[in-house]
Design a protein that fits this description.
Layout (H helix, E strand, L loop, with lengths): L20 E6 L14 H8 L6 E2 L4 E2 L5 E6 L7 H17 L3 E6 L4 H12 L4 E5 L19 H9 L4 E6 L4 H8 L3 E4 L5 H7 L4 E7 L21 H14 L1 E8 L10 H17 L1
């Protein structure tokens, strides 16, 4: 059984046994290819969440009406990606074995791989819906197979062709896009076609991963690799609602907030709101 964290995301303080959704932080950024700092993302989101209300006027739902549990941040080895991924996999496995839905807060995007390893064991027919600015389909980055620039390629190694669906992608090298055409479904720039994908995946287990740099940097500058040309906050919310309403989500994550690059705090506040809306959409 997991113990309650002292500081929780706002409203996520029920008992573990009663929880339907369990949050945990994965503060890891050792493979960041541009600006580091996402290891501080989960802590910042948790602390800043108390600037939010528990009530969502978008959904007319309140966090306090549901059972959410925040188990806090994992203590991850910054110098060894394999060890960090193993710890993430174990935490995800524990939550799944207890019949609950894990929601991980990163951290850089590589942390998704640890969770997907655990979820794919329980759900061999797992599919991934992926929101991001970056394709993350490199086979290696400067020789490293474990990198946030390779995370969806490593997930493909587990799941195979036709089970990864990407949206909002607007950055990657040519080889990523060439390789991706034959192995994954990539929608560049926006969420067009999302409703059709959700409909086609109805009843199938879905891992939902949100890299917050899918947002335009004018909305969300606090990230390690900002990319111009992203979506708006309301477009992202609508896409989250579409996925959660129509999909059998079995696990999910939100990642790539690097709070120090936005001293205004607006990026962290935005990330908090995304987490709140995701939580309430899951129930």
């Amino acid at each position: 059984m997991l113990n309650k964290n002292v500081e929780t995301f706002i409203g996520c303080d029920c008992e573990y046994e009663d929880a339907k959704v369990v949050l945990f932080g994965a503060p890891f950024d050792s493979t960041t290819s541009n600006r580091p700092g996402t290891r501080f993302g989960s802590k910042a989101i948790r602390g800043e969440s108390f600037g939010l209300e528990t009530y969502s006027p978008y959904l007319d739902k309140d966090i306090t009406d549901y059972n959410f549990f925040d188990s806090g941040d994992l203590e991850l080895c910054f110098g060894d990606a394999s060890l960090a991924l193993s710890d993430i996999e174990e935490r995800t496995k524990t939550i799944l074995e207890d019949g609950k839905l894990p929601l991980m807060i990163g951290g850089e995007h590589l942390v998704t791989l640890g969770a997907v390893r655990a979820v794919s064991e329980k759900y061999p027919d797992l599919h991934i819906i992926h929101f991001d600015a970056h394709a993350d389909l490199r086979d290696d980055y400067l020789g490293a197979k474990l990198s946030h620039a390779c995370v969806l390629r490593r997930c493909h190694d587990i799941l195979g062709d036709g089970r990864i669906f990407q949206f909002g992608i607007r950055s990657g090298d040519r080889e990523e896009f060439v390789w991706g055409k034959n192995h994954v479904s990539t929608r560049k720039f926006d969420f067009e076609g999302l409703k059709e994908v959700v409909e086609n995946l109805k009843g199938k287990p879905v891992y939902f991963t949100i890299d917050l740099d899918v947002l335009d940097p004018s909305v969300f500058p606090g990230t390690g690799t900002p990319e111009a040309g992203g979506v708006t906050f309301l477009q992202l919310l609508d896409a989250i609602y579409t996925v959660c309403k129509g999909s059998k989500i079995v696990a999910c994550d939100v990642n790539e907030l690097s709070p120090s690059y936005d001293p205004s705090g607006i990026s962290t506040a935005t990330a908090c709101k995304v987490v709140r809306e995701l939580l309430l959409s899951l129930v």
